[in-house]
Amino acid sequence: MAMTMLEKILASHSRQEIVRPGDIVDIFIDVRVARDFGGANVVKKIREKGLEIEDPQRTFFTFDCNPAGSDQKYAVNQHLCRLFAREKGLKVYDINSGIGTHILIEEGIVYPGVTAVSTDSHANILGAVGAFGQGMGDMDIAAAWNKGKIWFKIPESVKINLNGDLPSSVSAKDIVLNLLKIFGANSLLGCSVEIYGKAAGNLSLDERITISSMATEMGAIIILFPPSGQIISYFKERFKKDIKPVYADQDAFYSRTFDLNAPDFRQMISRPGQPHDAVDASELYSVKIDSGFIGSCTNGRIEDMQKAADILKGKKVAPGVVLKIVPATDSVWKECLEKGLIDIFKRSGALVSNAGCAGCAEGQVGQNGPGEVTVSTGNRNFPGKQGKGSVYLASPEIVAASAIAGFITTPDRIPAEPALFLIKPSTPDQTSKKPGESKAAERPNIVEGRAWVIRKDNIDTDMIYHNRYLSVTEIKEMGQYTFDNLEGLRNFASEAHRGDIVIAGRNFGSGSSRQQAVDCFISLGIQAIVAESFGAIYERNAINAAFPILACNNISELELTENDNVRINFLTGEITSLRTGKSVHSEPFSEVQYEIYKNGGLL
To answer: Which of 544-577 are b and which e, b meaning 16 or more Cβ less than 10 Å from the residue's Cβ?
Structure first.
């Protein structure tokens, strides 16, 4: 029977000849990766459970979040991973290497048709080469390291046809921001997306990486491109591999198909707070900036560096504006050096740093301060993600042009003289928190508790548990930081009662793959979370941690108010308001979820 790209890849890595959306199967994982902060938690779980490594040759560490080791906690975690790697014979791509997902492609470790998992929520970037990549929490990664496989629920597949030719001014970053404008953060939630059409077929490897790297921001499991002749040649010529690319069957079934007109795409910029809040770049012309950032797994490739250099050559960054440039990998950095791009960057007044994730990770360049306005090529601009200031997302061309102008602009509208700007710093909320106490979770099938009703969609993991606390590995210490970065709920940790139940909107837990965004609720003794829908990685992390979550798209019908008590039956999915007696039905626990729940966790 016919299958889509993802279905064929996953079927070939399972015991099934055919897989269909909704099937839960064990997937053999070709490549298993942990990063700086996630790696320490993986090691901790492996040691606590007395587990072994199934295949050291398929198991890797990548240190890309803090290449400088400039933060003491990062440095401790990195060295902990190094010691473990020496003991187990694992390969470490250390602080001199760059972004792990890019390394996997550059080193030929991942190529069309293979499967890979990482503690990086942007591991789905590997869809750029027609491979399956998935970000997962540290419990999933520990299980994959030990077993060589992991359970996975086959998602629905969606097909996007990008028809016609793109305007010459539209970059790959503009393409994905246009897609975010069209589809938002959750209309493709949990789906595998395949992109076809003339415009897509002409994209280079670097351009495909840019688009695939933002699948997470669209709520998608992955964005897959069918491998072009150029992609296949890349691996065959460099690594002499016998590449067997996977393509969808012509009569494969897609739950939805979209035909988009590429000539209608425009240069776009995402406004601060949400990547999908994208508007035509002209709407933000003249917004003053304090800084610019070029890099990240989305726009740190050599083509991105070259485009920025073409604009910066012979020009200066505006007085008072800071431009930070971070190539994705050491090989990109060296190519920048060989081509004279580093010289161009330095002569323009930019800061060039070690290859790595940079702005997305708290420990390296790219962070901004309170009141600072940044235009960035990163993939996320959630509040607090890249610092305490405001972050606009744009292409390398727009960032370079804006850095010269001193305000947001496009390359064709750079003024003869740069603009001046005023700094208006704000004072961040420094509300103190009381640490919660951990308690062994009871596992009844029916629970009752007070409802915390949060009428908000797209609550991401940075709002739930900010990345500045990622070095914390003890669950009992995590509760105090819950919702620390969500406006209006910063007192949640001190006001929540053990046994409370959180009620939320759509796409709860979108964003990073951090397990702490689940464990912090366990730390506080929260009994369950009910939301209209969940981010794909968050859903896995909660299930694997035996933390009850239920998806209920009509929870609003209960008309719950603060301090209402609710009853939840995990086996039937029934949710009842104890004040009114009214009930609705959510998705009950699946067999896998129930087994893991009763087992006390995946491990």
So the answer is: bbbbbbbbbeebeebebeeebbbebbbeebebbb
Number of domains making up the chain? 3
E strands in 210-287: 222-224, 256-261, 268-270, 278-280
Query: What is the predicted pLDDT for the residue at 431?
Result: 47
| Nearby residues of 518 by Cβ (< 8 Å), 6 or more positions away | 137, 509, 538, 541, 542, 545, 547
| 220-246 pLDDT, tens digit each | 999 999 999 999 999 998 888 788 999
Domain end position, chosen among 395, 413, 431: 413
Helix (H, G, I), strand (E, B) or coil at 62: strand
CA count, 13 A, side-chain hemisphere, 144: 30
* Final residue in a domain of this structure, among 244, 264, 284: 264
User: Distance between the two ends of the chain, CA-based, in angstroms?
Assistant: 35
State whether 67 and 216 are in the same domain: yes
Mean per-residue pLDDT over the chain, rounded: 92
Residue 362 pLDDT grade (very low, low, confident, very high; cuts 50, 70, 90): low
User: Residue 441 — very low, low, confident or very high, per pLDDT cuts 50/70/90?
Assistant: very low
Tokens representing 191 are 């789906």
Distance from C-alpha of 438 to C-alpha of 479, rounded to nearest angstrom: 8
Domain extent at residue 71: 5-264
Residue 114 lies in a domain: yes
Looking at per-residue pLDDT, the higher value among 32 and 384 belongs to 32
Q: Which pLDDT value is given to residue 433?
A: 42
Q: Are residues 240 and 314 in the same domain?
A: no
